[in-house]
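Lesson 9: reading folded outputs for more than one chain in a single document. The general rule is that every protein is listed as its sequence immediately followed by its structure tokens, and records are never interleaved. Here is the first one.
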Amino acid sequence: MLSNHDDSTAIIKNKVGETETGSFAMEAMRRFRAMALLCRQAAVRDPERSWKLLAEAEYWEHLAAAALVH
């Protein structure tokens, strides 16, 4: 069994050289932005709740931005 002296800092590179943590962050960002888009689309269809849905879209966009930082 292979071990790393400090597993918390181990980073695996995939075939294109992108770190696995980077690809996870990009996937998380993509999903968060998709949720924001769904909220904005729902806000168009439901004007009475649009304020809440647009606030939720802003929340998802905030998470997307934070995913890229970490």
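And here is the second record, again sequence then tokens.
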Amino acid sequence: MYVVNPELPERYKYETDYRKIPREYLNSNIPKGRDKVKWAPFKTVSDQYKLLDEYIEEQNKVEMPLLSDDQLQILNETVYYNSMNNILTELSYWITAI
């Protein structure tokens, strides 16, 4: 039989369960380890806030529509009519990179 704890008294030399060995024979300098790990939320690093906000902003972007000449003409006439008659109009537009 293999001696597990050679430095302990004869009664505990072959004991593999540390709970059955009295405290005075156990090594008290065993490190605690990680103990209770408190998990951090996903957005913990400040750079993550920036990156996640950029990802969210990218997801909200809409691709620029391709309009025909007829659609552009109707759009221009509608904007002109609303501006001449002081009708409040909300416009959305795209800025294209050159």
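What the second record shows: The mean pLDDT is 83.
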